[in-house]
Amino acid sequence: VQLQASGGGLVQAGGSLRLSCAASGSISSRNTMGWYRQVLGKQRDFVALITGSGSADYGDSVKGRFTISRDSAMNTVYLDMNILKPEDTGLYYCYVPTTRGVYWGQGTQVTVSS
């Protein structure tokens, strides 16, 4: 499984960004897909996930501001991030948990300036 994340960048506080993650390889529309983020020197924190049936879950710090969605036909997951805050800054990783293990993308940097 390969995951290609994109869409990060620099944005002012209060702004919006959309992240994308395209999966290829041995993955189906039934797989859960999601996002974590990490700040240098800190642990990786859960951001959001979406199941194959479309159920979503979010980390407490992003609820009400971020929305995860997917295009199952394209095996692509999106993360719409609104009302961004400086504390949302970090390297965002998409992931896919499978019975063979967890696959991670390469990360895309999001920087929110105050």
Q: Can you describe this structure?
A:
The protein is mainly β and 114 residues long. The chain is 0% helix and 56% strand. It is built from no helices and 11 strands. The strands form 2 sheets. Strands 2, 4, 5, 6, 9, 10 and 11 form a 7-stranded mixed sheet that branches. The mean pLDDT is 95.
Strand-and-helix sequence, N→C?
Answer: EEEEEEEEEEE
Average pLDDT rating:
95
How many beta strands in the DSSP annotation?
11
Strand content bin: over 45%
Q: Could you say which structural class the secondary elements and strand pairing correspond to?
A: mainly beta
Shape: globular
Task: State the end-to-end CA separation.
Answer: 37 Å
Helix content: under 10%
Q: What about the largest sheet?
A: 7 strands, mixed
* Low-pLDDT regions: none
Outline:
With 114 residues, the protein is an all-beta fold.
Helices, strands, pairings?
Layout: E1 2-6, E2 9-12, E3 17-24, E4 33-38, E5 44-50, E6 56-58, E7 66-71, E8 76-81, E9 90-98, E10 101-104, E11 108-113
Parallel strand pairs: 2-11
Antiparallel strand pairs: 1-3, 3-8, 4-5, 4-9, 5-6, 7-8, 9-10, 9-11
